[in-house]
Predict the 3D structure of the following.
Amino acid sequence: RLGAPGAAMLRRSLWLCLCLCSCPARGLRIHEYLYFQVLSPGDIRYIFTATLAKDFGGVFNTRYDQIYLVPADPPEACGELNNGVFIQDQIALVERGGCSFLSKTRVIQEHGGRAVIIADNAYDNDSFYIEMIQDSTRQTADIPALFLLGRDGYMIRRSLEQHGLPWAVISIPVNVTSMPTYEIMQPPWTFW
């Protein structure tokens, strides 16, 4: 019988194998991952994995070596933001729920955000990526929209709260293929 870390690693390995080996047009492929690194606060200085929205949003044409990751207030970002001024020219961390992924992306875009990272609202989700798709409104969004595992989003927000910080400093996107394996610091609660 496998312990929790072993079972999570096995689930993730099987999931990656299915992604790499399956051929359906809608299936997630390994090359659709995007990586970002938290630079500050130091207790979560890890490289995180996210996935791009399937059929809406933009792409990263620029690499940001140091940009703020600002948790939206309210977290679901389904309407006017209390901290919208801080999201201007930064990246927003949003929580899933309350409205569509596209609606959240449009709210962040309207507040001048450069991208949005939408974390699952299931805080124990450490391995299942959700495919973010267009809603029925036929609206569009131009900024990149990424999906982040719930555990990762929770740990980032928790660290910011513990340190009394309004945002994290991140680099995005990060090219992990050019990094030596020993330099890739992954979150200890998640297995790649």
